[in-house]
Design a protein that fits this description.
alpha/beta; Alkaline Phosphatase, subunit A; 10-stranded mixed β-sheet; 20 helices; binds 2-acetamido-2-deoxy-beta-D-glucopyranose; binds zinc ion; zinc; EC 3.1.3.1
Length: 503
């Protein structure tokens, strides 16, 4: 067990205080745990209780205030893009939509409205920074997969309002590199990384030391981007702390940086945080990736809560965008053994990569098999693998999913889908006026509540975006693209099988 669950004990020791405010919060933090359904919370709590041999609650258990309904405009089961747009713009839209409505027209977001009102703004995530959730808060495009366009808008280059983000942290550097670079994910020659530095004054960094040079937010200036990885940042269970800070470290650093800068300039801030990869492990049926990203989300939520105790001008709301995987605890009847998960050191994706290496190497068949038993199954904490299970590996559509499901079956858990589900998810909050959100709400109401608390007006922003005709044209789908996207319900499922993690 390489992870401590001391967060749990720390949470219990905290008094349940809510900032005694009569006014409005000055700053807002919205924290999105992507793909975190109600069963995921029980799953992580039960594991923490087993590890600690005690009955404890998770930090977020103490911050629960309500439920959120998540359906999109075109389906009862939302994706991350429609959900992010619902939170950011306060409108229901179609799956795949980034900051646009059902007619592909741009909608002003809370982050943009904040920026136009002189606030400082931040996006801090563990997926690619160009992924659907952060994109929905700061950019506009008909399809979430247009990540190069999203990157262009994030730095201010193709955004009609100019640069609207002051600090961003997350993965996805490949979308900032020209196609001549072997790591590039773009199909044009734009060197966005350099352009951001020279034309838009960004400090663009990748090295862990550059993050550390922010000194927990005491140093550093805007605009600042820390993008350490080409693709998503690592799952918490696989993270190399020499290369990548944790989500908690990034969240606290961003909070301090935004707080210092906004006090210097007598303004407010809006910060979007995301525990992005809880969702990816749900799609991948990987209990280990899911578990440790959830525990890290809890650590980060506790850190934000403690920060707010010292800064009661700031309020926090947190809610997933949707459930993922249809996680069930107790399959078959009444079985659910968290102890089984304690022996795995890293994610199923990590052991699937080891499997690929073993298979690619010129070992004898019997050496191959013993290495697979030892390094792949054994590493993942499956010590009594059967010969049928070993044989199944070579025909599995995804080795990572196959491994995850074998461990899950031994733990007594199961997933019913490779996609999202339509169940309500939990709303968490802390600080000034958040208790007003008690109850069951549409995701759009969550966004509208934060907007009203900050005294912002999204319609004004929509009007400004709409006034730019060339922009409105640019973000429309190609003539043959509309129908294709709108009814591509199997989207998330397909990309999972292609081994690409896009959710
Ligand atoms: C777990 O806690 C119970 C009750 O506090 C105690 O009796 C038991 O010995 C503990 N088990 C372990 C493995 O520490
Ligand atoms: C419209 O938006 C584009 C970015 O897409 C920007 O380059 C251009 O300057 C804007 N036009 C006006 C008139 O603001
Ligand atoms: C970049 O910084 C320079 C010097 O501070 C300033 O004059 C310029 O307007 C800035 N450019 C942008 C796009 O913010
Ligand atoms: C693989 O190893 C065997 C025996 O060690 C050897 O005969 C064979 O040439 C090797 N094949 C390759 C492609 O290296
Ligand atoms: C392997 O061991 C687990 C306990 O860790 C047990 O529940 C499971 O039935 C065993 N599986 C096989 C195939 O022996
Ligand atoms: C687990 O769920 C899958 C569907 O994803 C189903 O096919 C399978 O039978 C379930 N396993 C058990 C043990 O119920
Ligand atoms: C929205 O725009 C109107 C008209 O331009 C303006 O009077 C109002 O102050 C704006 N509201 C906000 C919150 O920016
Ligand atoms: Zn999502
Ligand atoms: Zn997803």
């Amino acid at each position: 067990m390489k992870f401590s669950t001391t967060i749990v004990a720390a949470a219990m020791a905290l008094p349940m205080i809510h900032a005694a405010h009569h006014g409005k919060p000055k700053n807002y933090v919205f924290f999105l745990p992507d793909g975190y359904g109600p069963a995921s919370e029980t799953f992580a709590r039960d594991y923490a209780n087993w590890v600690d041999n005690a009955t404890v609650v998770l930090p977020v258990d103490e911050m629960a205030i309500g439920y959120v309904r998540t359906k999109a405009s075109d389906t009862l089961v939302t994706d991350s893009a429609a959900a992010a747009t619902a939170y950011a713009c306060g409108i229901k839209t179609y799956n795949g939509a980034i900051g646009v409505d059902d007619d592909y027209l741009p909608c002003g977001t809370i982050l943009e409205a904040a920026k136009l009102n002189g606030f400082y703004t931040g996006l801090v995530v563990t997926s690619r920074i160009t992924h659907a959730s952060p994109a929905g808060f700061a950019t506009h495009i008909w399809d979430r997969d247009e990540e190069a366009d999203i990157a262009d808008q994030l730095v201010g280059y193709a955004h009609p309002l100019g640069r609207v983000v002051d600090v961003m942290m997350g993965g996805g550097k490949c979308f900032f590199l020209p196609q001549s670079d072997e790591d590039s994910c773009r199909d044009d020659d734009i060197d966005l990384w350099s352009l951001a530095e020279t034309e838009y004054n960004w400090t663009m960094t990748s090295a862990r030391e550059s993050f550390d040079s922010l000194h927990n937010g005491e140093s550093g200036d805007f605009p600042f981007a820390f993008i350490p990885t080409m693709g998503h940042m690592a799952y918490e269970a696989d993270r190399d702390p020499q290369l990548e800070p944790s989500l908690t470290e990034m969240a606290v650093t961003a909070l301090n940086l935004l707080d210092r800068k906004s006090k210097e300039d007598d303004t407010s801030f809006f910060l979007f945080l995301e525990a992005s990869r809880i969702d990816h492990a749900g799609h991948g049926h990987d209990p280990i990736g899911h578990l440790f990203d959830i525990l890290e989300y809890n650590r980060a939520m506790l850190a934000v809560k403690q920060w707010i105790e010292e800064h009661d001008d700031t309020a926090l709301l947190s809610a997933a965008d949707h459930e993922c995987g249809g996680l069930t605890l107790g399959v078959p009847d009444y079985a659910w053994y968290p102890s089984v998960l304690a022996n795995a050191e890293r994610t199923s994706e990590y052991y699937a990569a080891i499997y690929d290496e073993i298979v690619a190497f010129n070992y004898t068949e019997s050496d191959k098999e013993s290495l697979i038993v030892d390094k792949v199954f054994g590493g993942f904490g499956i010590y009594n693998v059967t010969s049928e299970e070993i044989a199944g590996l070579s025909v599995a559509p995804s080795v990572a999913i196959y491994l995850g499901e074998i461990l899950a079956a031994r733990a007594g858990i199961n997933w019913s889908t490779l996609g999202h589900t339509g169940v309500d998810i939990t709303l968490f909050g802390y600080g000034c006026n958040t208790e007003k959100m008690v109850g069951n709400h549409e995701n759009t109401e969550v966004g509208m509540f934060m907007t009203a608390e900050l005294g912002l007006n999204l319609k004004n922003v929509t009007k400004m975006l709409m006034a730019n005709e060339s922009f409105v044209q640019m973000i429309q789908p190609p003539a043959d693209g509309k129908l294709l996207k709108r009814f591509q319900v199997d989207h998330e499922h397909d990309v999972m099988h292609a081994g690409i993690h896009k959710h």
